[in-house]
Amino acid sequence: MRKATLKIPPSLCLKCRGGKLLCGLTYCPIAVNLMTKSALKRTDRVRRISGSSPPTVFVGRYGYPKINVYPSSPPKSGDTSIYETSSRWLDLPLEEFLSMRLSLLRGSMPVEVGRAADPDYLFQTIQLMALSNKPVEVDIDLEKPLNVSEVLLDEHASPMGPSSPMKSLVADVEGIPKEIERVYYDTDFKAAPAMQDLYKRGIEVDKISRVLSIGALGEKKSRKIVPTRWSITAADKNISDFIVDQIKDFPTIDKFLAFKREVPGNLFMAILTPSNWIYEWGESWFPGSTWNQWGSQAEVEIDHEGYNGRTTYPDIGGCYYSTRLAVAEHFRRIGRSGGAITWREIYPSFNLPVGVWFVRENMRRLFLQKPAEFDSIDEALRYLEPNMKVPVRKWISGSYVYPTLRYNNLDRFFDLK
Length: 417
What we know:
The chain has about 425 residues and is an alpha+beta fold. The chain has helices at about 10-15, 30-40, 95-100, 120-130, 180-185, 190-200, 205-215, 230-245, 320-335, 355-365, 375-385, 390-395, 400-405; strands at about 50-55, 55-60, 65-75, 105-110, 135-140, 165-170, 255-265, 265-275, 280-285, 300-305, 340-345, 370-375.
């Protein structure tokens, strides 16, 4: 089947000039192309990457258990920390974010996942680089020039620029936080409690997933390198498990709390419920959006868990756990417990995969808003309904939380339009 393509009339671009987004996309493709070309100029012949790594180390998954590790850097020096600080990315225009991330140039090195248990000098240098809290000056010699037409766009990981096999790496590492250094050198500390310990000590989940991916956590004999897309989900799941267990002992909220957040190409919604812990995450992808390129209608998918969680990986993917983390963090912040319905609508103008960080950070910001309070779940749904493009009945037909609450008489049932 031929992939859908977007053709924008030149006359529309002349009227818009990147400022009005008249094409309906959430970014200007011309601006992204020009900004990325500027960031990557002359790199197609470059055999050395020199710059300040934020730090960034990407771990691939193909060929597991022999995979590729990619120490990365933009071709610039200075404070590049924003390249790896997802909490700041929502404040950037999408064009600037994409250009920034696609300018991260990658040197690749094949490695067995078990190398983490007994790292040689080069791999330990990459590990220490990933642990740093400050940009790391690097010089990466490449075996052949970068292919600037090959970039990384992934459902889980953030976009990244081109790569080439690495011959050598020199890194000036400093600024490893003592909290991370302690768990790195404690080879009797299991990985799961080590992640929770880092989170309790104020280390952000992005950093924790990077430390996990490079094989820097766990008992020495069990340490393994973890592909980046797996480590992101593992960190979100592990830390949200930890918080959910905490909040189950908190008093329950006494109202239905409704939240909504609209950003270009997306609608995020949440209803917190006065009940025991119960949770669902749903996505509706419209035709022309990232994962519904050829459909004729919006496709809705919902995954859920009850009080005791779930034992299988959700079909809906890593955003299930990134949202679950945001929900759990909010309940802990207000000192209450409850259940949660969380839904997202994705429209045709949002057609690039940017990573699960986008969902996690948008849901975190959603919960910073003041909620609307209601006595019934149907009132909460009516509050959200005017913003929805998917009929509310289509949402609740696939919901787990809604009928569960109704069955348990936690709410009166009202007919919804």
